[in-house]
Every structure is written in structure tokens, then in C-alpha cells.
Fold:
Amino acid sequence: KGLKSEKPLILYGDLNVAHKAIDLKNDKSNYNKTAGYTQVEIDGMDRLQDAGLVDVFREAHPEEVAYTYWSYRFNARKRNIGWRIDYFLVSEALLPRISGTSILAEVYGSDHCPIQLELQNTPIS
Structure:
């Protein structure tokens, strides 16, 4: 049946792929050389979006450079040399209910930072 014909879906978490060049600091030096930014992984993310899931952060912030993961090496977080590999992917039917999304880069605790999705409590049409 596919994702489009089922109940609305929210897929979220560390998907370990930087989907677009804007989603990592050094795209050219990592493309097809580093796990997380290979064409096979990018194609997998494309298939999720072709199936009807929307990258909520990128939809709301098409040009914003923001990361959710930084290596512990080389002071990467302090220098903001990161990757955006944590996502909220939602069914198109849920888009009208989304009131906000953010990356909480100022919150420390691991090599990732939290991401946030705000939903309105309204019926889905």
C-alpha cells in the first residue's frame, strides 16, 4: 500500500545520513568517501521523501545551515564542523499541524543535540 495510503507517520531520530550538501560542513571532501554521505544513503533518503515523507526542518528552513551532530575530535562542535543527521520526517497530511521545528544546538550531553517538533492538537483531514 505504501506510506501515502496508511495512517499519518512521524519517522524521527538519528538516520545517519546527511541528505543535502547544506547538511554537512565539508560536503565535497566527504561525498562518497564517508559513511553518512554516500550516494546510496542519499538515494535512500530520496526514496523516503518520494514515498511521501517531508523533512520538516528543511521544509521550514530551506537555506539554514544547522547541524545536529559533531565529532568529539578536533573541537568540531566548538568550531561548528558538523552534520545534520537527525530528522523529523512526517507524512504530508501532518504538515498543517506542525507549528514549529528546531535544532537545539545549545543543549549539550552527547555528540548530538536534541531536535524538536511542535504539533497543534487539531484533527487530521
Notes: DSSP finds three helices and seven strands in the chain. The chain has a mean pLDDT of 94.
